[in-house]
Amino acid sequence: MNTLISMDAFNAGLKSFLDSAPTPFHAVEAMSERLRMAGFTELNEADDWALEAGKGYYTCRNGSSIIAWRQPAAEAALEQGWRLVGAHTDSPCLKVKPSPELHRQGYFQLGVEVYGGVLLNPWFDRDLSLAGRISYRDNTGRICSELIDFAQPVAVLPSLAIHLDREANSSRSINAQTYLPVVMGQTDEKPDFRLLLKERLAAQGVVDVDTVLDYELCFYDTQGAATVGLNEEFLASARLDNLLSCYIGLQALIDTEEVSAGQVLVCNDHEEVGSMSACGAQGPMLSQWLERVMPDSDQRNRSLARSMLISADNAHGVHPNFSDKHDGNHGPLLNAGPVIKINANQRYASNSETSALFRHLAEAAEVPVQSFVVRTDMACGSTIGPITAAELGVKTLDIGVPQFGMHSIRELAGSQDAHGLYKVLQGFMLTDQV
Q: What is one term from the GO cellular component aspect held by the record (predicted)?
């Protein structure tokens, strides 16, 4: 039996998920918890798998990428193929350097690297916290890892006063090396950052730490997700690109219980930096998973010929102050439905057949659909869609919810669009028309 939750309930769950996922590690942990509650079983990639038709499973790699699926019967997998939804768990951010400690003018600061194509200006004057993964040696000499989240504001990146930078509003550029070290507090001497992390782990109840060996930590804005606008038309949050799509795909998978074709959600890390990693879309994670669930190569290839991937990654909504940045006929509006993304040079993987199916499914779900094509005189971004299509040879569609402020520390989407895409993806997971 399939369920369809209301828009209010969907958005409440979405906001809770966004707030619980300041890093890809936390996003995968939050998704795993929701899958467990829905009856899915976790499988370790290092173990032998005994799969049963009709049951739900998930597996993680690097703690930052996840594949979840319902296992079809062998005949159904061969005759119906797989319905795959892809998204990514990472977002542009500021990551802490390996030796980050700075002590200047009595202030304790941390040096950072820029991860992905960050819109830097909005990071200034925000209440920042710190989260990620720490690897440590315990008191027995064993190497362990633990997620950490300071949760409270522990840092800030103060702007320089306008009086000292009279050109700030007309010609200011940001030097990432010199402008971005984050202020953590005041101190008489430079603290040991790894010792600070050890103390934080102890505060979380991890008391067997001998030495903090390394970490992957990023700063994030502590302001939580919210609905805004006179009539609550908008959803504002950090990391909408692309945790919004992760949650939409997750909820569609959980709420679509009927199994005919195989139903799959894959959320990869490292999309914002090119996807080339062991757990990125340009790596072998998805193809290795497929080889395990369908070991026979001939049957696997025949099944893929009957399969389809929807790559869900947010689209650029037309900004009322910058409408000239869009093609006049292809400016998606917030709250006017999900967007089919098209590019003649295959920066998006959509074609007429995959987009036609999406339009058909959206019409059945009574959800409006829009199209996005970048201006012909501008460069086009890309997604995991073309990468996965090339890796697997599976027909693919690129779609997304329209948003403002992509790659900002706080982004904006329509409060109706995510729920609309959720309804269409439910239909996609059940369709026999691929």
A: cytoplasm
Q: What is the CATH number that goes with domain 93-221?
A: 2.30.250.10
Each residue's pLDDT tens digit, 369-402: 999 999 999 988 889 999 999 999 999 999 999 9
First-to-final CA distance of the chain: 22
To which H or E segment does residue 280 belong? Answer: none
Tokens of 263: 């139903």
The two tokens of residue 13 are 């769950």
Q: Is the peptide bond before 2 cis (omega within 30 degrees of 0)?
A: no
Q: What is the pLDDT of residues 129-174, one digit of tens each?
A: 999 999 999 999 999 999 999 999 999 999 999 999 988 888 888 9
Whole-model pTM over 0.90:
yes
DSSP, residue by residue, 20-40:
T-SSHHHHHHHHHHHHHHTT-
Looking at 126-208, which runs of residues are DSSP E strands? 128-138, 143-149, 182-186
Return the CATH number of the domain spanning residue range 7-91+238-430.
3.40.630.10
